[in-house]
Write a structure and sequence with these properties.
Elements: H1 2-49, H2 54-100, H3 111-121, H4 130-156, H5 172-185, H6 193-219, E1 221-222, E2 232-233, E3 237-238, H7 239-265, H8 269-301, H9 309-317, H10 320-326, E4 331-332
Antiparallel strand pairs: 1-4, 2-3
Amino acid sequence: MDGEKVAFEKQAVSEELSFKSAELAEDVKKLGDDLEKRYYVPLAVEAEMRRKDSKCFDEAEHEIDVLHGTARSLLQSYQTVTALEDELKSRTHDTKRAVKRKLPVFNPPTNGAIDLEEERKDHFARGINIYKLLLLLAVGSFAGVIVEMLWCYLTRGYLESRRGLVYGPFNLLYGAGAVLLTLTLYRFRNRGYFWSFIGGFTVGSALEYLCSLFQELLLGSRSWDYSEMPFNINGRICLAYSIFWGVLGVLWIKDIYPRAAKLILRIPNKWGRIITVSIAVFLAFDAAVTAVALARWSMRIKGDPASNALAEFVDERFPDERMERIFANMEFGEN
């Protein structure tokens, strides 16, 4: 009964607002007639008589300010109501989709259900905090490599490394993409697809461009080149992959993120922070070793011999053959 009462009260609020908006629409219709009597005719008389009645002008300027403020308030109200409509529609659609699918593998939890469970458990990685972002970085780094390797196999018929780190199947580009998509799209997780697509399109394209630029500036190498693709920018991004990022944005926030958040919820609060910090330390160490190994690989290609014991150790542990297997698509520019 309490649930029915709350639902009725919420419905009553929306219906009351609908009734008030209908009344407001009628008042707006009357506004034109009122303005004509109070201002349009007097202003026309002033123009015809070529007079300058300061009182008439002052009142008109005041009315303009009032109308401007009213228009801004109405626009804000319109935007708020439109957003509420979109969110309710999206939450209803997501819930219907989740309820209809019977197989768990095709049935991601809704973001609303994730939010509720995180709050009830007072989970260490609830909402958007540093622990969840670090875990998503790890999950995205791993999942991205697996997905792209499978895609390579399905489209080209062979498996090829898509790793970005020397230890383990991780690529921080995918992890960073997961984090940035989450930060950008989290506020739209219970909204429709449009903003998720725009956010994914923009953030993914910017991330891909900057990663390509910094890699070339710091290491003199490029891991991808879209120069032969239509509508590309300096070969770093292209329209096709930007659209892919947009679709990925929708897929991420509506399907992949809630699945990942559901898995994160299974990590107990007692050990969650320790596990998360341990993973972050490992990835930081892996990234540091990778940077050193890539730098030495680049120097070896240019013909620079090892000048100290550390360089010799790196050359021994990460020879060209191993680096070529890990970074199958990396190309170094001429220096």
